[in-house]
Design a protein that fits this description.
- This protein is an alpha/beta fold.
- The chain folds into 2 domains: 204 residues, Alpha-Beta Complex (Spore Coat Polysaccharide Biosynthesis Protein SpsA, Chain A); 83 residues, no CATH class.
- The chain is 18% helix and 29% strand.
- It contains 7 helices and 21 strands.
- The strands form 5 sheets. Strands 1, 2, 5, 6, 7, 9, 10 and 11 form an 8-stranded mixed β-sheet that branches.
- The C terminus is likely disordered.
Length: 302
Amino acid sequence: MTADGARRPAVRSGGVEVCAVVLAAGEGTRLRPLTERVPKALCPVGNVALLDRALARLAGLGLAGPDRVAVNASYLADQVVRHVGERAHRSVEPDGPLGTAGGVAKLRDWIGGRGVLVGNADAYLADETAPPGPDIAALLRDWDGETVRLLGQPAADPTAPGTFDGHVFTGFSLLPWRLVRDLPVEFGDLVRAVWRPAEAAGALTVVPYPGTFLDTGTPGDYLAANRHAAGGGNLVDPTATVTGRCRESVVGAGAVVHGDLTRAVVWRGAAVHSGEHLCDAVRAGGDLTVAATPPLTGPGSL
C-alpha cells in the first residue's frame, strides 16, 4: 500500500508478477567483532545501513512495502525487525538462520506463486551510471518466468569453483515460482538447491552487472565499500564533530573525532580521541577498533 492507502501496481516481468526477498539473517562471522553488536545487514556503508541500500535499490524497481518486499532475520533478529518496521514483510527464523534456500522457503506462503527477486543484504552494489534500481532491472527484462537468472561479473579465473558461466555472483538472483514452491523449510543454500540444478538443466542465465560490487564480508572489503561510497574522499555526517585530519574516511552521525583518520570508518556515536591516528580500521563505540587492511586490488585500493 502507498502512504495514501492506495494499492501499488504489481511489478511484472514478461507477464509474471514479481516480489522481492532481502536476506538479512546471517551472523556475519567474518566481520566479528563488529557483528557481535550489530547484525551485518545493519552495518553502515557510507553512513547508510546495508539493508537500507538494498531496500532503496528494490524501491527503484517499484518493489516496496510489505506486500512486495520481505526481509528475513535470525541473528540479532530484534534489531533487524525494529529497523525494518512496516517497510517490508518480516520473516523471523528463531532457531537460527535457515540459509538462503531455507529462508526463501519459509516465505513460500507470502511469495504465493510469484517470481521472486532475491538479494543479499550484505551486497554492496554501486552503478555509477544509474540511480538505485535500474542497474539490476536487467534481471527482470523480458524474463520468461521459468528460468533462473543471476547477476554476475566476469571472474578472474572463469573456471574457478563457485563461478557460473565464467562469472561470480554479485548479490541478486531471480527465481521462478516452480523452483521455489517445493523448497523445504530447512537449512539449505540456493547454490545447491536451485542454481546448480538449473545450470545443469540449461535453465540458468547470468546477467552482466556493470557497476562496482563488494560482498562486505571481511573488514577489508567492508572498508573498501565505505571508501567507494565516499567517492575516494571524506564522507562526514553533518552532526559529527571532527577537529582532526581526515583522509578517505567515513564518519557517522554524532561521532566525535579529535584524532586523525586515514582510510577509516567511524560509526555513529563513536569517538576517536586527540592523539589517536586511526588508519585502515573501523571504530565502533568508544572501545572497539577493528583492523581493516584494504585489498590489494579493486575499489579498496583507490
